[in-house]
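Z., the sequence and structure:
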Amino acid sequence: MGTTQLETVPEPKYWHLKTVLSDALDSEFSVGEVLPNERELAARFGVARATLRQALEQLELEGRLQRRRGVGTTVAPPRMGVAVGPERHSWPGSGGDAWQPVDCEAGTAPAAIARVLGVSPDETVHIVRRNRMTRGQPVAAELLYVPTSAVPGGVTADVQGGTARVRAVLRELQRLDLEGQDRAVELGSARAEDAKQLDRLPGAPVLVVTTRYFALGRTVAVAVATYRADTCRLTFDEGESPRLAATGDGAYAR
């Protein structure tokens, strides 16, 4: 089988235009500024509108642009940093937590999550939904799975759904002695439910951050946070090196 000499493959025209547009965004436009319409931009750069659209779509995918209905295409703000340092040991809902409670229900965890929690697939768990906003825009959605056996007093019969139920579960978690936590980060595609919460199309690129919380000598909670890849970037603490681990079996190395 022959090999492909990539250096001989010409650069797509839209990709070159994307680079030119990116430079223009840095030098001529400010965050939130509305770009000229497609006709004007195509005329300025001497390209077909189809080529321009490809370049704009790529810049939107990379988080440089935002398309807002009724407004147009605007320059996006800098990406929000997502800290993945393992030393920030704190329970969800503790002081400084930027997540906003949405709802909580009793249900069953996905098989992979159930294995990590060490519970049977049909065991009831609390499923807490939270989201995260920045500049009025949704940037992340989280599902937190907590076995009812880990927080037996977490939700009484008189606590209905909604934010009150979320706070009740988180309050009981915080009564436990947190022994540690770890995180795993993967690139994924937005599922229909995630896409709706994040105001993206299904299949849009996302960063999936899975956090395990340890107490009572075992994993007592697992949080799966889905971040918009076009608005977020990962940050590591000084002196920390990211660890690589195979996750094909659904397990996360501690």
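The first strand starts at residue 65 and ends at 68. The CA atoms of residues 90 and 96 lie 10 Å apart.

Let me know what you think.
H.
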